[in-house]
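Consider the record:
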Amino acid sequence: MSLLVDRPPGSAEAPPEALPPKGRRRWWYALVVVALLAEMAIAMITTAVEQSPTIDEPVYAGTAVVYLEQHSLRYNPEHPPLGKLAVAAGLAFTGVHLDPGFTGDQTQLGRHVLYESGQDPGRLLLAARLPVIVLTLLFGLVVFLFARDLTGQAGGLVALALYAFSPDVIAHGSLATLDVPVAGFLVTSAWLVWRARRRPALYVPLTGLALGAAVATKMSGLAAVPVLLLLVVVSVRRAPVGGPKWLRAIGAAISVALLAIAVVWASYLVVDPQLRWTAPPGLPPFHGVRALAAWLPLPEPYLAGMRIQFGFEDQVWTTFLFGTQHTGALWYYLPAALLVKTPLGALALWAAGAVTLVTVPRLRPAAWYVLLPAAVLLAAAMTGSRDLGVRYAVFMPMFLAIAAAGVVALRHRWVRIAAAALVVFTAASSLRTFPYYLPYSNEAFGGPEATHRHLHDSNVDWGQDLRRLGSRYAGSRVWLVYKGAGVPSYYGIVAADPLAVPATEVHGLLVVSDSAVAKADGRLAELIATSTPIDEVGHAITIYRRP
């Protein structure tokens, strides 16, 4: 098979197609990159402005305010501080303050900060979301540069376009949550370790910092540590520098691990230089193989957070897939959910790109840096007990956008034409869902208006549409079953709980979050069955009328 790329990826001299364009073409090329990122920024900012708090955001925002004012680690210990420090960077300019006498739990903390601090909740939430939006755009540049390094200029644009139009990346990149930041730092780590094949002295330390940032953002990043350290060894062994190769490679891997550990420690010390910590009561113990985690050279609050996460994993969770509620985790849940929530054009390019990376000899070395981390992370996520959304696999649209760029490295003209058509199809599907990115599903599954029939929770309805509900039904008395962290009364919603009174007293408008509809049983199922759907809000809340 003839390829456009003339030299192996990562060789001492980059292929001509991987170099930046010259002259007037350079300006057009840069303009396309800027336009794609600008489109993504507009989509994310619009979404961030219009949406009310999702379930996790108030907790992170409240914890960020505690970091700023009290330098305390006592809230939200199940996640490391770095992502919440990014959220704090936005909130630092809002003037929000925490009542010194506040003593509630982290859920009450989030509500107190957003709705009881005397500030505009929308303004606070946008300030908390903006740092994540900026990070998401920067990670887009990483995806672009990684793909351009591997496959050339056209490949960089294809990867960036798939990333910029990914509904899942836009949806979660516009929220003050941790899923996109940890995924982006992991992709950055893979790109830097790829570049270490030629310049290890520069890129090995940067890899350690990026990997540390991932692990200091969310503990799910730990799954990628062994594979990335292995790739450090591979890269440094192939680097064109003198000395004992194996010794140098193992030393580089150790240095990356030490730098990553240092970043984790630094993230805690930034919050509290004295690292004051009192373990919350009822921490699950380490047991079995998990007991090995206690030996990790990480801060005590980090290890306590791991114990909390293990406790979550030991619980039995319910999930909803393709119209059926299940008790316990489904090993195939994430691949199935990705199939629903990824644009069809992107799915085709992901598959073609992955096959190209594996089968084309000149591109095969790149597969270890793109496909292997993605596969390991996905396998780790699939073993989890919480089937709550594709946000647990939001690294897939990032890594596989880079893999898709391999398609345009083929010389065949029809391949490039087909790739361009699939990118346009992806863009059209993404734009069609604007600004309702969270409940997106592709055309094969009925589009965003039908997602609630197949999936639930953060795939569809994460509490984000309370503000939109208020803009349409403010002042109307409704019976509300809401899954979220917002305060209905703030948005003018006059609500009562239909499950707190006999069904014979529930008349008029019944408003139910689609996640609650998906898992309805007993009284709620009876109320829904005897009601008539008349409206929907944001493809996430259904309005019924009861006689």
In short: Residues 132 and 415 are 35 Å apart (CA to CA). The first helix runs from residue 23 to 50. DSSP finds 20 helices and seven strands in the chain. Strands lie at 318-321, 324-327, 477-481, 494-496, 508-513, 532-537, 541-546.
